[in-house]
Design goal:
The complex is a heterodimer of chains A (264) and B (307). Chain A contains six helices and 13 strands. Chain A is of the alpha/beta class and 264 residues long. In chain A, the strands form two sheets. Chain A has a seven-stranded mixed sheet, sandwiched between helices. Chain A starts with a strand and ends in a 5-residue tail after the last strand. With 307 residues, chain B is of the alpha/beta class. Chain B has a single domain, classed as Aldolase class I (TIM Barrel, Alpha-Beta Barrel). Classes of the chains: A alpha/beta (264), B alpha/beta (307).
Chain lengths: 264, 307
């Protein structure tokens, strides 16, 4: 059922985003997987796992449930079901992570896992404007003094972090796909891992195919059971066809991560 | 080599596994996917007279012995469902997999109307869901609770489906399920589906609250199996029509037990969570292996053995 987690730390990322770090790990969590977080009498919603040990979830306040989460304090409890779904699978040794907006959350967990495996990683983060760029500090190799298990502790070995904003208020002006082109040219990755809005993913898919690159994308849908039972989480036909995802593919169970460009 | 062919009314299924209603079954894509994964027949999600959003989350949990769910009969309404079913039928036809539609409603008259709308899509069978335990707030006590109400709905549906056979889906939480089944058959049911989920509740002790937003839900999966076997057994002793026996079937051996209890075909639902969409095909293969091991050449050789 649900496990009880107590909030140990809350980190404000921007005007509507907080990262919640809990008091213990979520056993068996893999990057790319998600949990269903439950607040009794409020609701239950899916969140990508931003950190597994201890559990960390990044929450953007966009509705009644996420706003209720934002009203919680250190010491309050959240009930969690998971880990659920299929996560990322490391392919090769040099990895390129691409995050759009709040898609960066699962990539933080993935970056740490890559570094722990002794592999190398470049990261491209894109957003509309400076304040929508999330978790950038956590990806940079600046603070080597933090000895805690804080999942937001800067990752030492991210080789290159590229930030792009559409209005140029942080990093380079432009779309994240431009940064990806540059990253590929500088050092060709064995695989690209992405999470973000559908238009970003479809553009990135074309780019990866053009370069003959393996790529894995995390998809989003309205989730209810999280068990591959209720059928609520099928992608709409247009998205499915644009992404070459087979009919009947379930985001909550077959995904949320899909290894793209495969036969079935 | 054991023969898994299952003769169900006028249908010839390649194996006795039937995707239970409420498990996936929400689109032609997903129904086709389960068909290709090895099902003998697939049942669509129940539809009603008007669209329903269903209950807010949490709607389902795995509690270690199966699932507890209260999805809330989410459906697009019979008109739109009929279109989906027509498309599903076209996709399933070349695969040789039968399509079972499922209907529910709040009144006897509405049941007749929904039946008529769905019959136009020409499913192979229409399952009459008089037993969902999760919508008491809207619909009150299920029609499956008494012989009179079960018979009234059956008659109204039978009157509105033309030549399409109907299977009435019963609830386990009745004092005498054999009598309810007999009443439905007498009113025109061509088959019986047994059982729907058993009403239950889970409480999170640390939260001090029921886990589901609907508070109560339906128990399915392994915890339901002994209830389902008992119900199928009692129904098989009370009526002569074929039974789709469903509740807790996770393996080929479970399927054999259900057949021995008197079922003609075997519904599979929660196993799709524990084993994936491939569950039905895998269960069929395990059933064949069991039959080979025990020396049963056909399903008939096992059917009703325990009666």
């Amino acid at each position: 059922m649900h496990q009880t987690f107590t909030i140990a730390e809350i980190h404000t990322e921007n005007y509507r985003t907080k990262t919640f770090i809990f008091d213990k790990p979520l056993p068996d969590a893999q990057p790319g997987q998600y949990v269903m977080a439950w607040l009794p009498d409020v609701g239950e919603k899916p969140f990508s796992i931003a950190g597994g040990d201890p559990l960390a979830l990044m929450v953007v306040a966009v509705g009644p449930f996420s706003e209720a989460l934002h009203r919680l304090n250190v010491g309050d409890r959240v009930w969690v079901r998971g880990p659920l779904g299929q996560g990322f699978v490391l392919q090769g040794q040099h990895h390129l992570l691409v995050g759009g907006g709040y898609g960066v959350a699962p990539l933080l967990f993935l970056a740490r896992t890559i570094v722990a495996a002794g592999h190398t990683v470049d990261v491209c983060i894109g957003a509309r404007t400076a304040e929508d760029v999330l978790l950038a500090e956590a990806f940079t190799s600046t603070d080597s003094t933090d000895q805690t298990d804080n999942p937001l502790k800067s990752i030492q070995s991210v080789d290159k972090l590229h930030i792009t904003t559409e209005d140029g208020t942080l990093g380079e002006r432009g779309l994240v796909t431009q940064a990806v082109e540059a990253a590929i040219a500088a050092r060709r990755p064995d695989c690209v891992y992405a999470c973000g809005p559908v238009p970003m993913l479809t553009a990135l898919a074309r780019l990866c195919q053009a370069h003959g690159l393996l790529h894995q994308f995390s998809w989003e849908a309205h989730l209810r059971c999280g068990l591959g039972i209720c059928g609520s989480c099928e992608l709409d036909a247009a998205t499915r066809q644009a992404a070459n995802i087979p009919a009947g593919w379930l985001v909550c169970k077959d995904g949320p991560v899909r290894i793209m460009n495969q036969e079935s | 080599m054991p023969d898994l062919t299952c003769e169900f009314l006028n249908l010839r299924l390649r194996n006795p596994t039937v995707l239970a209603s409420g498990i996936l079954g929400t689109s032609a894509d997903v129904l086709e996917r389960v068909a290709r994964a090895g099902a003998g027949a697939v049942t669509a999600k129940s539809c009603g007279p008007t669209p329903r959003a269903g209950h807010p989350n949490p709607v389902a949990v795995d509690w270690g012995h199966g699932l507890l769910n209260a999805i809330g009969l989410t459906n697009p309404g019979a008109e739109e469902e009929a279109q989906m079913l027509a498309e599903a039928r076209a996709r399933l036809e070349p695969l040789g997999v039968a399509l079972i539609a499922s209907i529910f409603a709040g009144t006897v008259t509405q049941f007749g109307n929904v039946a008529s709308t769905i019959a136009a899509a020409r499913p192979h069978l229409i399952e009459v869901n008089i037993s969902c335990p999760n919508v008491a707030d809207d619909f009150g006590t299920p029609f499956a609770a008494t012989c009179e109400s079960a018979a009234a709905v059956t008659e109204a549906v039978k009157h509105n489906v033309g030549d399409i056979p109907i299977s009435v889906k019963l609830a386990p939480n009745v004092p005498n399920i054999g009598r309810i089944a007999a009443a439905a058959v007498e009113a025109g049911a061509d088959a019986i589906t047994a059982i729907n989920t058993m009403p239950g509740m889970l409480i999170d002790a640390e939260a001090g609250r029921p886990v589901l937003s609907n508070r109560t839900g339906g128990i399915s999966g392994p915890a339901l199996k002994p209830v389902a076997l008992r119900c199928v057994y009692e129904i098989a002793r009370a009526v002569r029509v074929p039974i789709i026996g469903t509740g807790g079937v996770t393996t080929g051996r479970d399927a054999a037990e259900m057949l021995m209890a008197g079922a003609t075909a075997v519904g599979v639902g929660s196993a799709v969570w524990t084993r994936g969409v491939e569950a039905l095909g895998e269960i069929a293969a395990e059933l064949a292996a069991f039959m080979a091991q025990e020396g049963y050449r056909t399903l008939d050789a096992m059917r009703g053995l325990a009666l």
